[in-house]
Predict the 3D structure of the following.
Amino acid sequence: MGLSEPEEAGTTFRANARIKAEAAAQACGLPAFADDSGLVVDALDGAPGIHSARWAGPDRNFRRAMEITEEKLRALGATTPDQRKAHFVSALCVAWPDGRLEEFEARVDGILVWPPRGDKGFGYDPMFLPDGHARTFGEMDSDEKHELPPRGKGLSHRARAFVKLAEACLG
């Protein structure tokens, strides 16, 4: 629709999703949907968090973002799985032009591995090993990671947030 992207000035994933959805709904006069998501690393006090994409720089170099994450973890001496706990968060917002909002948030827990494994997915997927699995998100195909019940398990943070949205909005 040719809408400009609003500044994501929120301090949470939920706030940034809301900013984007509300801006689009007001600009076009139609219901709008937006999301915000990222990686939260316990040992890094929640970083990169809402700045996950920014760590990749303007050229979206997520290999470099993963290297930065690893460098920061090593600087803290975080080398064991227990010290490398992380989770992905996905916040979804549906906004209507009349100001009504529906918001949903979900997460998937895991640990960060090094070196990264796999070339599927995007972002930090190759270094994220979800709890209870032997393969990183970067080693899983899209269906395995995102497919919703009843066909899939809804493993990813986005899939889990969409399940919440569907349950609330579609019954």
About this structure: The domain at 13-170 is CATH 3.90.950.10 (Maf protein). The helical segments are 13-28, 62-75, 142-146, 157-170. The two ends are 29 Å apart (CA to CA).
